[in-house]
Amino acid sequence: MKSSTLRENKDFRRAYYRGKCEASACLVTYLLKNNEGETRVGITSGKKIGGAVQRNRARRVIRAAFAEIDGTFTGNYDIVFVARTRTTQVKTQRVLDEMRAQLNNLGALK
Q1: How far out from the chain centre does Cα 110 lie?
Q2: What are the mean pLDDT values of the chain's consecutive 10-residue runs (110 residues total)?
Q3: Sheet of 77-83: strands edge to edge?
Q4: How far apart are CA 76 and CA 97, in angstroms?
Q5: How does 16-30 read in b/e, with b if 16+ C-beta sit within 10 Å?
Q6: What is the pTM for the complete model shown?
Q7: Cβ-based neighbours of 101, under 8 Å, separated by 6 or more
Q8: Which of 7, 47, 65, 100 could form an S-S bond across to 95 if both were Cys, CB 3.0 to 4.6 Å?
Q9: SS3 sequence, the chain?
Q10: Cα–Cα distance between 82 and 55 in angstroms, integer?
């Protein structure tokens, strides 16, 4: 089943404060189980990453990597991916590998 998008600030905050976290050089992942009946995903990139072009590229790379593993979750989760400075400098495959490893460590993948 395809995932939907997190949009509300309160949902992001809930994932930050109550969720489990995994971090690497180019991606931070927050994971929180939800009762919504579907997996919801949010992607953020702060101003530390650079200008609008770099932030958009970081979000685009994360979105493309997530599309590869969408639908392979063990339950319903709220997932927040936070881009880091290095995200703008790496290929989608590297982000996908780190994303898969982080979600596996958090117990979200089948």
Answers
A1: 17
A2: 88 97 96 93 95 96 95 91 96 97 93
A3: 4-5, 40-44, 77-83, 27-33, 20-23
A4: 21
A5: eeebeebebebbbbb
A6: 0.95
A7: 24
A8: 65
A9: CCCEECCCHHHHHHHHHHCEEEECCCEEEEEEECCCCCCEEEEECCHHHCCHHHHHHHHHHHHHHHHHHCCCECCCEEEEEEECHHHHHCCHHHHHHHHHHHHHHCCCEC
A10: 11
Whether the Cβ atoms of residue 1 and residue 73 lie closer than 8 Å to each other: no
Contact status, residue 31 vs residue 14, Cβ threshold 8 Å: no
**Identity of the amino acid at 26:** C
As a whole number of angstroms, the distance between CA 34 and CA 94 comes to: 28
Q: Which residues pair with 77 in a beta bridge?
A: 33
CA dist 79 and 34 (Å) reads 10
- At 49, list the tokens: 């990453």
